[in-house]
Amino acid sequence: MRPADHTAARAVPELDEEEASRACAHRLERLGKWTLPLLVLALTIVLWDRICVWNDIPQYILPRPGLVAYTLWHDAPVLFPALLVTLRTTALALLVAVVGGVGLAVLFTQSKLVEMSFYPYAVILQVTPIVAIAPLIFIYIQSKLVGMLLCAWVVAFFPVLSNTTLGLDSADHNLRDLFSIYGASRWQRLRYLQLPSALPYFLGGLRIAGGLALIGAVVAEYVAGTGGVGSGLAFTILESSYRLNIPRVFAALILIASTGVAIFMALSLLSHLLLRKWHESAVKRET
Amino acid sequence: MTLQDARATVGAATASTVPLLSLAEVSKVFNGELVALEGMALDLFEGDFVSLLGPSGCGKSTALRLIAGLSHPTSGRIAWGGGQGAGDLGVVFQEPTLMPWATVDHNVWLPWRLRGRGFAQMKDQVTEALALVGLEKFARSYPRELSGGMKMRVSIARALVTHPRLILMDEPFAALDEITRHKLNTDLLELRAKIGCTIIFVTHSVFESVFLSSRVVVMAARPGRVIRELAVDAPYPRGEEFRTSSEYAAHCRAASLALHDAIGENA
Fold first, then answer.
1. Cβ B198 vs Cβ B166: under 8 Å
2. pLDDT digit string (tens) for B176-186?
3. What value of ipTM does the predicted structure carry?
4. Contacting residues for B90 by C-beta, under 8 A, at least 6 apart
5. pTM (predicted TM-score)
6. What does each C-alpha distance from A60 to A240, A255, B20, B209, B244 come to in angstroms?
7. In principle, which of A26, A61, A276, B98 could form an S-S bond with A282, CB 3.0–4.6 Å?
8. In the listed set A23, A54, A85, which residue is the last one of a domain according to the structure?
9. Pick from B69, B95, B114: which is nearest to A188 by CB?
């Protein structure tokens, strides 16, 4: 057989049945990842609307989705400044949670005595409901902003602390030995080994903390009950419910939920960007 | 000094009668009851390739950790030639032990980085070490992009990059398939011929120890101790001819019998 014929005879085979079915499943999965949640959302909105119509529910009990969308648009001058206030508190709380959580985690891994002394209290702080602590915080702290930040921090810092501590302690033991053999200082060990090892753990904690910081900020706003200029979405919900302006309550609720989703997605993107080149959780695989 | 220069230095020193490293009656007891190593004596000279061969629990890795300074002997003495400390050591573990977040060249740079040397300053040495293991084209790759054998080569390049006096290898090829293992054994000897380093090699494999070493130290377990030392006097370079020779078979037979005795003493 001539070489040309030989090549022709060995043409790339078509996909076998198993491979074709796998490729099809993969395409469907990619399509479904976005379309299915949107479909569920559309069905829920339709069902919500129909329930309102069929049961003739008044708008001050359960407004129809169209009215909520209209309120979102119409009351934007009230809702969006409030959203910015809540966002500011959330972002600041998350920042403090990251600095505090990572700082404490580093301190814990540098000294077992410090960890043994303080870790139980970090756990106690985490498991005590924030709504129980918040009133006390606002009694002792005069500044509403500082009080709200403290509330949001108490809720958000623990996942960062817990995950980062775990990550810092999870560095490969052979690499630890290697660093010892090469005479690495404590700082070098932390910077070149422990912190990179902890990065995936920290980012996992950060994603949880992002949502918790928002919850902490909302709870703090409820408890603080700040009014007038500079009040956030929680206060808007509280005030609107007193006035039986339920469409605005729903509109504010939608903004809070959307903000939570946006924070989660932004932190997931950050995590992907930082880990995509080397960590199993972010690396794309052929199969 | 380049790695090739290091070879010349080691070559000149090979004739030295002062051991590079001397273990005198070294013992290690854990928790006051588990005798991991008992009365180990070993003299290692420049240019030696010594394999520690024995069953699990015979103290091979403990001996390596003591030499590396990761642990201290309960009794006995570890002395370095010229009265210096361990100084430069290269270490290769059973796993490649690479930093997954760093590229191959940054992994190899690590020993220098920990001594405060910048990457730009040490780039030539890093490239040279990678070239010695045939991976200069993969300098910018991440470890996850490499095969098991390639990762182990990176690990070897990292051990070589500082031109260490001694390289400690703790079952470096144990987790690899037989074909890759054969290839890396041959490559390791070629590498040693180029740079003339001194190596202590821990292994479970009789065949590997005989193929690579100038001396095979057979150890027994519970308590870990040296029971025999065999000289493999076949000249280097060694390749497939040696691997298929009757001389190799005879050395393997002797080492197997010694290992059998070592296991028998614990049975």
1. yes
2. 898 988 889 99
3. 0.88
4. B111, B158, B159, B160, B162, B164, B166, B167, B168, B197
5. 0.85
6. 11, 19, 89, 85, 92
7. A276
8. A54
9. B114
The ranges assigned to domains in chain B are: 13-88+165-184+197-266
**According to the model, what pLDDT value does residue B239 have?**
87
State the average pLDDT over residues A151-173.
Answer: 92
The per-residue b/e assignment along A254-271, b for 16 or more CB within 10 angstroms, e otherwise, is bbbeebbeebeeebeeeb
Q: pLDDT of B129-144, one tens digit each?
A: 999 999 999 999 999 9
Interface of B with A in 94-113 (CB under 8 A): 95, 97, 99-102, 110-111, 113
Let me know: does B86 contact B69? Beta carbons within 8 Å: yes
| Contact at CB, B114 and A172, closer than 8 angstroms | no
SS3 B181: helix
Whether domain B13-88+165-184+197-266 has CATH 3.40.50.300 = yes
- All residues at 6 or more sequence positions from A172 whose CB lies less than 8 Å from its CB, including other chains: A197, B97
* Torsion on CA atoms A208, A209, A215, A221, rounded to nearest 10: -170
8 Å CB contact of B144 and A172 = no
